[in-house]
Amino acid sequence: MKNPHILLLSVSLPTPPLETVFLGGLPFGAIEAIKSAYGVIVQILDPPRDGFNLTLKLNLSKLPPDEEYRHALLVKVASVREVVLGAPLRVILKYLASRTIAPDIDRLVALVHRPNESFFLLPQAEKVTVVFPMRFKDSIDTVLATSFLQEFVESRRTAGLNNAPPCLWSHSPPLELKGATDDALSANAGFVTFGNITRLEFLFPFLVMLLILQTRLCVMNAVIFPRHVEGKKLDRTVWNLSTFHAYVNYHVKCSEGFMHTRMRRRVESLIQALNRAKPDQEKTKKAAHTRSFKRLSLKESRTNSNS
């Protein structure tokens, strides 16, 4: 008989590109991240189910009684993909908080976040540079995403955003990525550098309203300092970086949907104007009927006059 408190959760990760290193089918630090995030409620099954990179056995009877803590833990279970893929990023940023570099780590670290796509980390003792090659399949999405990312540079000049992260934008990959393969740096949407990643959420509502239709090559480049990963800021920074491409893609799709809605409304208003310009055929026929007369013959006219 099946136990209603036991749940198996299998995760299939994106296909890693050649420049990304997986250990046992998982990014480095993933096992430790899972144990730290879920504690006793999760058991890692080895080997995982066929076709998956990871299978977790969840014991729901061990969930904490506190409602708020239980909800937070379940949200973390729903975010298991981010926990696994963001594990290397979390390890590197933890060392950044102590102003050191993780041992036995390459100068350039590639992390997978989409099928056959990765973003890059350049860890240093005082900062970590994060580079996102932004790729979009649809040409319209590419145009909108390019404008969206360029506004990271322009939006800081807007009144009320003086404290927003400073940004730079360029056509070509930054010099820090020298040595990376051409396929890894192939992008169709720019190169933007900004500072305080923990305050990114304040920029997005303004950027959506400031879209300018232009087309260029684009990659996202962020510089993370120790102050951005201190204490509780670490989780927020890891989340912002791990989901950055999805967040940009979300706002691009919303902008595209908004413009489509405006265009449909405009077409409807033009159709209504054309319909109002058409003559009303029923009224025309009725008016013509009231003005019509019947020609009488000579015999009928004499009969009418005699009567």
From TrEMBL:
SUPFAM superfamilies: Arp2/3 complex subunits. Keywords: Actin-binding, Cytoplasm, Cytoskeleton. GO terms for cellular component: Arp2/3 protein complex. One of its GO terms (molecular function) is actin binding. It is found in: Cytoplasm, Cytoskeleton. InterPro entries: ARPC2 (IPR007188), ARPC2/4 (IPR034666). Its main location: cytoplasm. Residues 297-307 have a biased composition (Basic and acidic residues). Residues 278-307 are annotated as: Disordered. Residues 286-296 have a biased composition (Basic residues). It comes from the Eukaryota. It holds the Pfam family P34-Arc. GO terms for biological process: actin filament polymerization; Arp2/3 complex-mediated actin nucleation. Functions as actin-binding component of the Arp2/3 complex which is involved in regulation of actin polymerization and together with an activating nucleation-promoting factor (NPF) mediates the formation of branched actin networks. Belongs to the ARPC2 family. Component of the Arp2/3 complex. This is Arp2/3 complex 34 kDa subunit.
